[in-house]
Amino acid sequence: MTQASLGQSVVQKEIQAQNNGVAANITHTQPLWLLAEVTYRCPLHCAFCYNPTDYDKHTQNELSTEQWIQALRDARKLGALQLGISGGEPLLRDDIEDIVIEAKKLGYYSNLITSGVGLTEKRIQAFKDGGLDHIQLSMHDITEEINNFITNTKTFELKKKVAAMIKNHGYPMVLNVVIHRYNIGHMRQILEMAEALGADYIELANTQYYGWSLVNRSQLMPTKEQIDEAEKITNEFREKQGSKMKVFFVVPDYFSDRPKKCMNGWGEVFMIVTANGDVLPCHSARVLPNMEFPNVRDKGLAYAWNDSPAFNKYRGDSWMKEPCRTCPEKEKDLAGCRCQAFMLIGDAEGADPVCSLSPNHHVITKAIEDSRNPVIAAQPIIFRNDKNSKAIIAGEMDDRVKEFHALP
Amino acid sequence: MSVQQTDIYAIALHHRFQWEEAQNCYVILFPEGMVKLNGGAGEVLNQVDGKRTVADIVTILKAKFSDVPDLENDIVGMVELALEKAWLRQVN
After folding, report:
1. pTM score, whole prediction
2. B29 vs A: CB within 8 A
3. Percent of chain A with pLDDT over 70
């Protein structure tokens, strides 16, 4: 033990999840984060959901309890540590208790990511006894009106009750609030609500445009001025309130000059197993063309992570094109998000058009302009529900998705 | 915050400290994040148990790493850093 091995050099790697992006310094790939999207069924119908719009195709072939437990064991062997149990609404499955118990046995730090719908005293007690480490609750607004509107459900009162239940059971209070045009003006009140609920962490996640939120992009996107104001309020709150509550503000990439280092790099630290067993390096990877993603029912997770062509395709930087290939900043963002590049410009290897150096940056400028166009922004929101998913699969909403190179 | 020899610390609430075979290091896990600790840092936090004083930890690690000079400052420095990062809470 030496001075160099302690002090400021003590932290080899500090890694924090922030919605789609993470900050980390990684030298070799390892699936530290396993996200289990155990179901796409959901009682809420949020306009900003990042789940695939064709999720209805994946609700009939969910993995069994035994298959999930096997996946947890295999991922742990690969080095997975943080487990997110997500969906859809995971509580629609009745075996989350079994999954939690197995996660504890295996040494995961486990997190239930929930809307709160379906969380009862009986279930939360079973999660506590089973060793679930924390619960991340989604909140939408301080007003009943906006909460119920954006989720297309009457869930406002329920969320407050669930927050109290989480606190009473000694769990850290971790809130996630997706930020969009309808709640961005209430940032101060949202932070005060979080403080009043005794939140330990709050993630203010500016909407990123994937899945349903991409279809509703013009209806959800706030203005640059609103985002700047929201960030200012957040910083003031942080200063006033100190370190009691950790506040993460996830910056919206459309208003940045450079893209996010999506998932901290393709196949670097994140692995997602979806409801039907597909293994993905990111939430929306299935939009990419000419890719076959591995499935846990076939060759298992070690093959998926180490050997599958899909996970290896965008590791490193040899796949990059200009202007990224010779860009001095390429290590910082790894050319951004592959899905966003394909969805918006039709080239999965191109620079993420969010980057001001991208020759296709105009698609972002146009999206921002469209969101301020009163005629376009007045189009109805397409809520995430089975009926709309079926309609999108059937091609009945082509006018809302035709500008994208794959179904969001 | 200055660390005293008589202070007693424990791993902070909602944090978990454990050995990770796959990473060959100690880690701290907490909501939304994790930290991998290098050898020296892991050794210090491994002695923190909510009962031992800082002086106890210094004694134990001095015995274990008798060839390392100036160990006490390293240990106190590590505890200070861990407090600043909110990985530890004081119990006395």
Report:
1. 0.91
2. yes
3. 93
